[in-house]
Specification:
Elements lengths: L2 E11 L2 E12 L4 E5 L4 H4 L1 H11 L8 E7 L11 H11 L11 E3 L2 E2 L5 E2 L4 H10 L3 E5 L12 E4 L9 H7 L34 H13 L3 E4 L6 H6 L10 H13 L5 H4 L5 E2 L7 H5 E2 L4 E2 L1 H4 L4 E4 L7 H5 L2 H6 L1 E6 L2 E6 L3 E6 L17 H9 L3 H5 L3 E4 L5 H6 L6 H21 L10 H8 L3 H13 L4 H17 L7 H11 L7
Helix pairs in contact: 2-3, 6-17, 6-20, 17-20, 18-20, 19-21, 20-21
Length: 513
């Protein structure tokens, strides 16, 4: 009854799937299933799940020696997604199902002991891998649908379906082929009561902060809001997504793949909504930056093409915060492991909020109970290098009771979003005119050149930078904010007003005494 078979599958490494050949050989010798090719514990346990699933689905488990090799053998294979290809490999090698069922297909799926086929994390990554190698994808019918052009996806829910002939198999699954999901489509229904949409118009006053967040949204700038409890920092940050443009098709797929690998929902992202992540301040370095065993993308990668909101910034462990410094510059996380480096995308907009001191009321009308050394120690937890990488610094004040009660509707999200879209369109036209591509260049000379400062405005910037002891990075980031302010006003050159406003968002008063 001996035979052999090779089936295409895939494994996740970082946020990408790489092709794995599942080679099955049925040999003479002592009965048993042996899995080789650097499998982890979950893959080794596939032997028992496959054995029970085959018997529950009406197939026979050969009473011979079965060797399963996962190639390439020099890369570690993790997860339960190899259950289905191993089972199909055994069935094909023993002649219980035709080879045509697995030819030209990439197969992933976990098996239950009763033979049911379950989805596994990373289905979108598997779909991208399948398209790259011009294969169809076979997985659980409960898996995410693929928003990938040119990919044919088959889904079924039980191993017993394989008992039919190849022609019937294909015909049966015709209705299970998933259609394309395009960014902007409705996606899956969330069910239950819908949440009331957020809007900047709900916030009374704070017009300066709204203006600053509009600038941040237009130019992908980071923002730090510092103020007492109840000033509205969290309300402002939670509405950031309402003024951001929807995800482009490629952006949506890239962000959704990361969420799929992490086992997170992807419907909203595929519908064009940008990610908004708000981890608690007790998060670990691996949770924020990425890591663990098995490797998992961190919150900064889950915020890719979206917003990362860090509330109570000074309460985060300093070592955790400093881990963001390199990703904020490069837009990616590189983790070194024994079997090589792994890279996670991490191009996000940082919105952070913090109290100015431990009691929260330094600079507020309510008396502060902290001493000057305590205030300095509290604010130093954020760290100067991280502060230097945040473009816009805002002092948020509480609105007085009389102003709060008498205030009318503030600037709403629709108005702010319109300005953001116009600024981005103008910036795209300007970059095309200048022969540039992508976002504002990160090289200092390119940022300076894009501003087109006059001699007088350049001298003004130099004087202010010298007076406030600004670093080179601070100067460049100030100019990038000034360039965005000019784009909002549809100005081809950055003038003194733009520079002065950008400096106002950069320079903060220190702790006196």
């Amino acid at each position: 009854m001996g035979g052999n078979c090779s089936i295409a599958s895939a494994a996740i490494r970082g946020v990408e799937a790489f092709l794995v050949e599942v080679e099955v050989a049925v040999l003479s010798g002592l009965p048993g299933v042996h899995v080789v090719g650097m499998p982890d514990v979950a893959v080794q346990e596939a032997k028992e799940r496959v054995r029970a699933a085959l018997k529950s689905s009406g197939f026979s488990m050969p009473n011979e020696r079965i060797v399963v090799n996962l190639a390439p053998s020099n890369l570690k294979k993790v997860g339960s997604g190899f259950d289905l290809p191993i089972a199909m490999g055994i069935l094909t090698a023993t002649g219980q199902i035709p080879r045509s069922l697995s030819e030209g297909k990439l197969i992933v799926g976990e098996l239950g002991l009763d033979g049911c086929v379950r989805p596994v994390p990373g289905t979108l990554a598997f779909g991208v891998c399948a398209r790259e190698f011009r294969l169809d994808l076979v997985c659980s019918s409960k898996s995410d649908a693929m928003p990938i052009d040119g990919l044919l996806q088959y889904g079924f829910d039980h191993l017993a379906h394989l008992a039919r002939c190849a022609e019937v198999f294909e015909e049966d699954l015709a209705d299970a082929v998933y259609g394309l999901i395009l960014p902007g489509s409705s996606g899956a229904s969330s069910g239950g009561m819908s949440e009331e949409p957020l809007d900047f118009g709900d916030i009374c006053g704070q017009e300066i902060a709204k203006r600053a967040l509009q600038i941040a949204a237009a130019g992908n700038h980071g923002v730090l809001m510092m103020g007492p409890p109840g000033a509205g920092k969290t309300m402002l940050a939670s509405r950031m997504g309402t003024i951001l443009p929807p995800l482009e098709r490629d952006e949506a797929l890239e962000a959704a793949v990361i969420h799929s690998v992490a086992g997170e929902p992807v419907d909203g992202i595929l519908a064009g909504r940008r990610p908004f992540r708000s981890p608690h301040h007790s998060i670990t370095t691996a949770g924020l930056i990425g890591g663990g065993n098995p490797l998992r993308p961190g919150e900064i990668s889950l915020a890719h093409h979206g917003t990362l909101f860090l509330d109570e910034l000074a309460e985060f462990k300093p070592a955790v915060l400093q881990g963001m410094r390199q990703p904020m510059e490069s837009g990616r996380v590189s983790l070194a492991r024994a079997d090589g480096n792994i890279t996670f995308p991490a191009r996000f907009a940082l919105i952070a909020a913090s109290n100015p001191c431990a009691c929260g009321y330094f600079g507020d009308e309510k008396p502060c109970t902290c001493t000057i050394p305590q205030i300095r120690q509290y604010q130093s937890r954020i760290g100067g290098p991280l502060m230097d990488r945040i473009d816009i610094h805002l002092d948020i004040r509480r609105i007085s009771p009389d102003s709060f009660v008498s205030a009318g509707p503030g600037t709403d999200s629709s108005t702010l979003r319109e300005g953001v879209m116009e600024a981005r369109e103008f910036a795209a036209w300007r970059r095309m005119r200048d022969g540039l591509s992508g976002d504002l260049p990160s090289k200092p000379h390119a940022v300076i050149a894009s501003c087109g400062l006059s001699e007088e405005d350049r001298l003004f910037l130099e004087q202010m930078a010298s007076l406030n002891d600004m670093s080179g990075r601070s100067i460049v980031r100030t100019l990038s904010v000034a360039r965005t302010i000019a784009d909002l006003a549809r100005k081809e050159r950055v003038d003194r007003d733009c520079v002065a406003e950008a400096l106002g968002y950069r320079i903060r008063e220190g702790v006196g005494g």
